[in-house]
Amino acid sequence: MSRKRRHPGRGEAAAAGRRGATAQRSRTRRPSRGPAVVVVLLIVVVGAGLAFSRLYPRLRRPVHSPAAHTATTPSPSRSGRTPRSQSRTINARIYFARVVNGQERMAPVKRAVLGTAPARAALDELVNGELPEGCSRPLPRGASLRSVRVEDGVAIADFTSELVRNFQGGSDNEGVIVYAIVNTLTSLPGVKQAQILVDGKPIDSIGGHLDVSGPLAADEELVVR
Q1: CATH entry, 87-202, from 3.30.300, 3.15.10, 3.60.21, 3.30.2010
Q2: Rounded to whole angstroms, how far apart are CA atoms 178 and 10?
Q3: Which one has a higher pLDDT value, 104 or 78?
Q4: Which of 7, 21, 157, 176 could cross-link 148 (Cys pair, CB 3.0–4.6 Å)?
Q5: How far is residue 207's CA from residue 220's CA, in Å, rounded to a whole number?
């Protein structure tokens, strides 16, 4: 007995057609992800490159050692002031020459001198410092200090030969020369006497009126205030 082939009805054919159209639209509408991924990767790469280009100069910048910086920078005190050993000064009295009623006399002037070498600083003021009004240099023209030191309370000042060679004469004038030196040095703390040398050697006298062969203490006889 032969079987009759079954032909699809209209309903089945229509359903099959709709399924085919739906599948075709799905394949047509599905977007491609390839270009989007490429764009995202490019953005990431460019951003990383910009960040590295900004960071690279900082990485190449030399690093300064804190220890080296500390070694070359003086350490300030806790108060922020200059260390006392560098700023300490001492008040000295510098004895300049002054003519009073036609007579040679001395006038003391207070000056602050460096505390690290007060004897040298005080005599430098006597020889080269600013002159007060109405005063003059007590030392003869051309005389200069060679050296000065303090030993056991005695300041020993060594002058060039002009101290004697250019002396102009007169007992008062000689007294002013001698005691301008002696009184200036003994105004310093710890100095009790002073001795005058010329070219490194002791001398008997500058002009024959005063004995300067040994240490002398201060004398105020020729001082005016």
Answers
A1: 3.30.300
A2: 147
A3: 104
A4: 157
A5: 20
